[in-house]
Q: What sequence folds into this?
């Protein structure tokens, strides 16, 4: 699913819930917001969550209970990069993923630049609790 093909999309909040605007489901035509919401949804999803796109998602739950070390951080970065690029949704050269840890949490920054955004930098942050699996994307 190439980002350029998406003309309008539903907006989600940091919990992955539908965003509401005066009681109506909020949608947007803003390409930057579409990319952010789709990226957030992909990162918060697991493989096989969507029947039509079985490889869609980062499946971060597979890392729950693992010991946080440099290899795990690199695996999380790679998993996120793959879920955003494997179907040409975004190109690998247009994203940067950085993960750091603090005790039982992994904090990830995803930056999207250049390419279709014409030098507009869009970024979002992810908080992933490695113990209970809570994921927030904001």
A:
């Amino acid at each position: 699913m190439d980002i350029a093909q998406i003309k309008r999309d539903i907006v989600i909040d940091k919990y992955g819930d539908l965003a509401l605007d005066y009681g109506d489901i909020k949608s947007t035509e803003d390409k930057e917001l579409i990319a952010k919401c789709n990226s957030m949804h992909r990162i918060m999803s697991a493989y096989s969550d969507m029947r039509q796109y079985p490889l869609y998602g980062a499946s971060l739950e597979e890392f729950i209970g693992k010991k946080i070390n440099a290899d795990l951080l690199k695996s999380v970065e790679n998993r996120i990069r793959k879920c955003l690029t494997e179907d040409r949704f975004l190109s690998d050269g247009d994203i940067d993923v950085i993960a750091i840890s603090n005790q039982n949490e992994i904090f990830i920054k995803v930056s999207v630049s250049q390419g279709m955004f014409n030098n507009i930098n869009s970024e979002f942050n992810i908080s992933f609790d490695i113990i209970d699996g809570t994921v927030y994307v904001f």
